[in-house]
Write a structure and sequence with these properties.
103 residues, mainly alpha, 2 helices, 77% helix, 0% strand
């Protein structure tokens, strides 16, 4: 009869060892998680500081779908003309000296 007690005691000890090893593993994972959360918090605060330094950007202009078509056409033509001039200036600046116009 005493060997039944020995078997049960051995089973309880094995179960306790198993549970202790699992608890030790969970504790290690918990420590890694808190370290990662600390790093993430530091990164987030650095990003927030950088965003504050950049300041608020103005909202992009909203499209005027119901505006006067003649005014919108003139504005579009002015914008395209200025972009065309800027493009020509950039191209002229990139040309080698021998290919530039002498005007």
């Amino acid at each position: 009869m005493w060997w039944w007690v020995l078997i049960w005691a051995l089973l309880v000890v094995v179960a306790l060892v198993y549970l202790a090893s699992r608890a030790w593993g969970v504790w290690g994972q918990f420590k890694e998680l808190t370290a990662e959360l600390t790093r993430a918090t530091e990164t987030l605060s650095a990003l927030e500081a950088a965003a504050d330094r950049l300041g608020d950007r103005s909202a992009p202009p909203t499209p005027d779908l119901l505006g006067d078509p003649r005014l919108l056409r003139r504005e579009r033509e002015r914008t395209r003309a200025s972009l065309r001039q800027e493009r020509r200036a950039r191209q002229a600046a990139r040309r080698p000296a021998w290919a530039r116009h002498l005007d």
